[in-house]
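Methods — Computational structure assignment.
A single polypeptide chain was analysed. Its primary sequence is given first, followed by the predicted tertiary structure written as structure tokens.
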Amino acid sequence: MGKRVLVVAAHPDDEILGCGGTMALHSQRGDEVYVLILGEGVTSRDEQRDREGREKEIAELKHQVESANKIVGTKKSFLFDFPDNRFDSVPLLDIIKVIEKVKNEIKPCTIYTHHQGDLNIDHQITFKAVLTACRPLENESVKSIYSFEIPSSTEWSADSSKYFIPNYFVNIEEPLDKKTNAMKAYTKEIRDFPHPRSGKALEILAQSRGIISGFKYAEAFMVVRILGDDSSSKGRR
């Protein structure tokens, strides 16, 4: 019996950039992979948020979420509508409640989410909300939490006290093509090389992470929490 995995991302494409290869591996192994995307991912381009004026773009981006996640084998995507790059304008409790609602519905044993030191404010708040929603209380389903890196956000942070220093690596040599193809589904998010979110740059990053961990290609994570009875070793959901 497989396990249930939840990826909590701030914006559409973060889930693929951060752990698309690992998601594909989980799916191949028979695990159920779910994605929660908190923000609509569009309106930060406005001087003031114009949700109605961006309706067509938001709908198109939601379609791309489904296309990208189908490639890596996601079972279901949960899409919410918090304002893009304005999570700090929303009560933190509102974000926590959304995460708790989805978490309680699917009861994952593993969560992947953003790194706390990212430059992007939405990423920082997502990390904090996940930790709050997954406090290790009695009967908590989540036994392990890992934070991933987002090219063009994690590496641009200037806070040396919160640098991303990976200590967990996943071999993604086999599913690398799925990751890069899934990223191509985000037609307005992918960039030309040498931008960090270009296909070539993603491959170079995976190669770099592989070199330091003994793989050809890898995704890197920081371990946030692993509880002793982690169900990943038992196949328990």
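Note: The radius of gyration is 17 Å.
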